[in-house]
Amino acid sequence: MKEKDLILDLQDLYVRFEVEDGVVHAVNGLSLQIERGKTLGLVGETGAGKTTTALSLLRLVSEPPGVVECERLIVDGKDVMALSQKELESFRGNDIAMIFQDPMTALNPVFTVGDQIAETIAIHENISQTEAQKKAIDMLELVGIQGERADEYPHQFSGGMKQRVIIAIALACQPRLLIADEPTTALDVTIQAQVLNLMRELRDHYKTSMIMITHDLGIVAQICDEVAVVYAGNIVEYGTLQDIFNRTKHPYTEGLFNSLPNIRDRKAELNPIKGLMPDPTNLPQGCPFHPRCPYADEKCKEEQSVKWVSDTHYIRCIAYEREGFHIKLEEKR
Amino acid sequence: MLRYILKRFLMMIPVLLAVSFVVYFLMDLAPGDIVSSMAPADASEADIERMREELGLSGNIFERYTRYIGNLLRGDLGMSLSMKRPVINVFFERFPATLKLAFGSIFIALVISIPLGISAATNHRSWIDGTSMVLSMLGLSMPSFWLGLLLILGFSLKLGWLPSGGSGFFSAIILPAITLGAAQAGNLTRITRSSMLEVTRQDYLRTARAKGVAENVVIRKHALKNALIPIITVFGSTLGNALGGAVAIETVFSWPGVGRLTVAAINVRDMNLATGCIIMFTIFLTLTLLIVDIAYAFADPRIKAQYSR
Ligand SMILES: Nc1ncnc2c1ncn2[C@@H]1O[C@H](COP(=O)(O)OP(=O)(O)O)[C@@H](O)[C@H]1O
Ligand SMILES: [Mg+2]
Questions:
Q1: CA separation for the pair B203, B198 (Å, rounded)
Q2: Is omega for the bond preceding A64 within 30 degrees of 0, making it cis?
Q3: Which of B207, B303, B304 to mutate to test the interface with A (most CBs of A within 10 A)?
Q4: Which residues contact A219 (CB under 8 A, 6 or more apart)?
Q5: Are A8 and A34 in contact (CB under 8 A)?
Q6: How many CB atoms lie within 10 A of CB B210?
Q7: Beta strands A226-231 and A39-43: pairing type?
Q8: At CA B182, angle to CA B179 and CA B184, rounded to 5?
Q9: 3-state secondary structure of B143
């Protein structure tokens, strides 16, 4: 097998939050590799640990209460866990950038959008303030906002426009890896498509590698090459877009697809996954999905292991050890 | 923005009229009558009435008040009967000293409270936070005249480091300014801490950190500029307290400001002088609050935008 050119190599990430009511196990041994130029979708319900994973890559988890441990975290060849504070500052925003979930609160209300874009540029590039301002205006135009609006404040922009500004900030220094944390969740449906298209265009333009965090499988289908389905702080199914959509193997992924509204068959009932996400302060033994899994048996309460079903596709499920097991979704297709 | 300033300026007028009427009315109620105490013992009722007329003290209270305001608008507050000089001149002679003391105390309060409040918030729940909270409670809860006496006792009488009164040298302002600044410092530390705590939870700080902004810049620039908005609001009342408190503390430190002047005027029943001082003082206080309000609008683009429309 040839050596892969990895933009991200994350091995065994654990993040816990030690808070008053106990220890929240947000991320539990998550490993992830992304090839340069690829886009990975990180899919899962709210509380699965997606944001925490992303923040860990920038070393931005607040410690305390957070405790971050990992075997290996290499971004574009840099050993991130070994970086000094100073090195981290030049790493963030330059090698790696993040677009946050809620554009309404992610911009500083007392600075103009132009200043907020120019700030990143001024930090990472050795240029004058006026040049940085000029580049900021170029960035604004790149994301489809008139340059004259650089002097306006965030409150003068709509949600979709704010998200464009945030995209401009994130891409201002052409990061190698861009993390987008549910970039369209807070937006109107019509705006969602525009913003998503913009992100896709810019990604292709700059050849940026990307992590797209979402709970929307539709977005995943549009933009991702690979998909990792996250449950209770770990990946339960990983594969190419085709693997996940056409050769679904994990019962949880099956549940996610079943819970989608079926546009063609309006009479079909919605089929949400039964039960709730487990309490992250008190995760169940064995497979954390077993209390909600329609296929679980006694063994699932005790153990869990990874099974590779092809070169590109694995699941964290032991039901496949059982003779003749396959999930129902496969039958329907 | 100009329209906003103008509007606020016009709104000041009814406030000033109401306040000055209350002051005028109360001073009028005060017992003692300078005319009868000034008149020679053998003066007749008619003589006294004539004197009253000459001094502009005849007629009912509304007539006198209207006349008073009319003169005030022309910059004439009448004569100080005890000093035999125009009230307005006496007032402006003493006012700078009061301003100096008030701003001295605010300077001390700001220099202490802003850094202390920020480090309390950024070290939330640490010993720094605890100590700063105890200190600000102390500053807030100590009556200022009592603190003033304690400081005089310690630093001038016992140690002999600083003068206990007067205004001749720079060092004379230190004790009264600390006395006056303590409560403001307590107040401002608490508000700085709480508004910084509020701001440090905001998403935009995470955005700033993700851009690679250094931590001290995140705090000094991104957080503080937002935290300043509530601080400025409180600062308005702090300024008011400082000016008002200066008047109260001046007597303790024999500071030659408007406060001591007013107290002296009341003691000799020089009502013209006392009324004039209080009304002028109120005008300056209201102006100060207006300036703070405008500063507030400048700190927050959302408010500024609201007014410039
Ligand atoms: N600062 C924090 N303090 C305590 N718990 C946290 C903190 N941040 C996240 N968590 C917890 O970690 C878990 C994972 O959260 P998150 O990563 O935000 O999930 P997602 O982005 O998938 O919705 C949740 O249970 C959340 O409550
Ligand atoms: Mg999230």
A1: 11
A2: yes
A3: B207
A4: A41, A184, A196, A212
A5: yes
A6: 24
A7: parallel
A8: 120
A9: coil
Nearest chain B Cα to A178, which residue?
B210
Q: Tell me which H or E stretch contains A25.
A: strand A22-35
Ligand 1 atom closest to residue A230's alpha carbon, by position in its atom list:
22
Closest to A234 in 3D by CA, of A13, A9, A68: A13
> How much is the pLDDT for A107?
95
Euclidean distance between CA atoms A278 and A288, whole angstroms: 7
Q: Write down the H helix ranges in A172-290.
A: 189-206, 217-223, 241-246, 251-258
- Give me the pLDDT at residue A266, please: 55
Interface contact flag, A109 B301, Cβ < 8 Å: yes
Q: What is the pLDDT of residue A94?
A: 92
pLDDT at A330: 52
Q: DSSP of A106-171, one letter per residue?
A: HS-TTS-HHHHHHHHHHHHS---HHHHHHHHHHHHHHTT--GGGGGS-GGGS-HHHHHHHHHHHHH
The residues near B53 (Cβ < 8 Å, ≥ 6 apart) are none
Query: What is the per-residue pLDDT for A1?
Result: 47
Instruction: Tell me the per-residue pLDDT of B146-170, one tens digit each, with 9 for 90 and over.
Output: 888 888 888 888 887 887 776 667 7
List per-residue pLDDT tens for chain B, 309 residues long.
788 788 888 888 888 888 888 888 887 777 666 666 666 777 777 777 777 777 666 677 888 888 888 888 888 888 888 888 999 999 999 999 988 888 899 999 999 999 999 999 988 888 999 999 999 998 888 888 888 888 888 888 888 788 777 666 777 888 888 898 998 899 999 999 999 999 988 999 999 999 999 999 999 999 999 998 888 878 877 887 888 788 778 888 888 899 889 988 888 888 889 888 988 888 888 888 888 878 877 777 877 777 665
Helices (H) and strands (E) in chain B, counts: 14, 2
User: Between 3.30.70.1230, 1.10.357.20, 1.10.3720.10, 2.40.50.140, what CATH number should domain B99-256 receive?
Assistant: 1.10.3720.10
Flag whether the ipTM exceeds 0.90.
no
Q: Residues near B61 by Cβ (< 8 Å), separated by ≥ 6?
A: B24, B25, B28
Q: What is the DSSP string of B171-206?
A: GGGHHHHHHHHHHHHHHHHHHHHHHHHHHHTSHHHH
Q: Which of A110, A111, A157, A167 to mutate to test the interface with B (most CBs of B within 10 A)?
A: A110
Tokens of A224: 């991702």
Amino acid at A79: D
Mutation pick for ligand 1 pocket among A21, A24, A181 (CB with most ligand atoms within 8 Å): A24
pLDDT averaged over 10-residue windows placed end to end, chain A, 333 residues: 80 92 91 93 92 95 90 92 92 93 91 94 92 93 91 92 92 93 86 88 91 91 94 94 90 85 61 81 87 84 87 88 71 51
Residue A216 region, left (φ>0) first, then alpha (ψ -120 to 50), else beta? Answer: beta
**Residues 39-68 in A contacting B (C-alpha not used; CB under 8 Å):** 58, 60
B195 token code pair: 């508004």
Cβ proximity of B210 and A178 under 8 Å: no
Residue type, A55: L
Q: Enter the tokens of residue A121.
A: 């540029």
Phi and psi at residue B48, to the nearest 5°: -60, -40
Identify the burial level of B62 via C-beta atoms within 10 angstroms of its C-beta, where 0-12 means exposed, 13-18 middle and 19 or more buried.
exposed
